[in-house]
């Protein structure tokens, strides 16, 4: 499960680099932290702008855990600079889905920006995603 944290963050980051290679005409300057002992990983997403300043964009916090039957799962908390609260997603294994696809989907969710206050009120529960172990 520990390697899943860093792999998931790498897939997430690769999606950002592919979908938005020059954010604000700058470059991504991300910082990763992984604590395998506690099953936590984080990526701080920043942009180095043309005028050489760092612009914080947000981040992703991952928690790796196992269900009672030993099935590996992830919880992802997406945050955006200036947004009041994060969006939380639980990723459970299920046949026919893959972890890399889930990383891409969450990257697309993050790039879409924080949910509006109206959306947060409509669906206060976290969205449950599906992914296959592998």
Summary tags:
134 residues, 28% helix, elongated, single chain
What's this model, at a glance?
Strands 1, 2, 3, 4, 5, 6 and 7 form a seven-stranded mixed β-sheet that branches. The chain is α+β, with helices and mostly antiparallel strands.
Structural account:
The protein has 134 residues and is α+β, with helices and mostly antiparallel strands. The protein has one domain. Helix content is 28%, strand content 37%. It contains 3 helices and 7 strands. The protein has helices at 2-19, 99-111, 117-122, and strands at residues 27-28, 31-35, 40-48, 54-66, 72-80, 87-93, 127-131. Strands 1, 2, 3, 4, 5, 6 and 7 form a 7-stranded mixed beta sheet that branches. The longest helix is centred in the N-terminal third of the chain and has 18 residues, at 2-19. The chain is elongated and about 50 Å long. Residues 120-134 have low confidence and may be disordered.
Question: Which SSEs are present, and which pair or pack?
Answer:
Blueprint: H1 2-19, E1 27-28, E2 31-35, E3 40-48, E4 54-66, E5 72-80, E6 87-93, H2 99-111, H3 117-122, E7 127-131
Parallel strand pairs: 6-7
Antiparallel strand pairs: 1-3, 2-3, 3-4, 4-5, 5-6
Helix pairs in contact: 1-2
């Amino acid at each position: 499960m520990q390697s899943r944290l860093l792999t998931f963050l790498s897939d997430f980051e690769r999606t950002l680099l592919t979908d938005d290679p020059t954010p604000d005409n700058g470059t991504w300057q991300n910082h990763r932290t992984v604590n395998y002992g506690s099953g936590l990983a984080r990526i701080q997403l920043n942009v180095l702008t043309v005028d050489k300043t760092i612009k914080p964009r947000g981040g992703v916090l991952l928690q790796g855990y196992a269900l009672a039957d030993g099935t590996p799962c992830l919880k992802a908390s997406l945050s955006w600079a200036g947004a009041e609260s994060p969006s939380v997603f639980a990723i459970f294994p299920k046949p026919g889905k893959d972890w890399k696809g889930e990383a891409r989907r969450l990257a697309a969710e993050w790039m879409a920006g924080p949910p509006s206050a109206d959306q947060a009120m409509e669906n206060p529960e976290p969205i449950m995603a599906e992914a296959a172990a592998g």
